[in-house]
Please model this.
Amino acid sequence: MDKYIYGVDVGGTFLKIGLFAVNNHQLLDSKAVETPQENHEISIFQEIIKTINIINIDHGIDMNDVLGIGLAIPCPTKNGYVSTCANLDFCHIDLVQSFKALLPNHIVVTVGNDATLAALGENNSLETPYENAVLITLGTGVGGGIILNSNIIEGKTGLGGEIGHIKVFDTDEVCGCGAHGCLEQVCGTKGILNNALEQKNKMGSVLKEGFTVKDVFDAAKQNDKAALNTVHRVAEYLAIATVNLAITIEPDVFIIGGGVSKAGDFLLDLIVHYFKKHARFNTGDIKFILAHTGNDAGMIGSYYHAYQHIK
Ligand SMILES: [Zn+2]
Model:
């Protein structure tokens, strides 16, 4: 009999619920539903169960053949326990126990941080997954996840893998985390736009008022000096952070994802250039690849997380 596991990416706006076949890890179906706005500690679980029931009926699946449900959530979590969550109304709650209480006994529930599980999703959906992988996502913020010996790293309280807050430079400006000089302050959207504007004011640029991060990378590809300076700065600071990770955990691969990674090989080649320049010992040969699962990484990772607890 075929068996199934659901992977759920719990976001502040949408819940993305995916049905996976255990025998070949294929995503069979997925639905995105709006995240309820109140009473998250109950309403989110109810919405997930409602949607799973609909998908089960669509595919003629009996709940007895659903072995587990994995959740990816946008906050630090340790073994499913969340102390606070900036995006959802979760406070000092054991999400595994709370969700299990609403489900048939046989269903295994796992919970992990979304960026950490995205790392698992990206890595495990490669044709040959690596044992040790680090994902860095470049978007509004800079997120990350670490896989060591094929397992996610949560750390003592769930803060393991907060790569965006590695200190890489000195500045008086304060990061969202309250500290100064984080990687995110250079490589997050705000950092990129502010620096590009500064460069433009200094030397002129093809960038027009109201430019976006994509415009900065497009201008850099066209050899616009101001945009190139900004992109080189992003690549070099990202390389410095990965050099520090390389001598700490020596992963097999760094996976670069998030909206900014759409700049593709142009950005990747620059990161590798600066990584080799700053690398210690023989870590300079560590591979860099682009992420490939897009917005499904968290959902796919939450599937593999549950799968690891069941097999
Ligand atoms: Zn920070």
Q: What stands out?
A: The first strand starts at residue 4 and ends at 10. Residues 4-123+295-310 form a domain with the Nucleotidyltransferase; domain 5 fold (CATH 3.30.420.40).
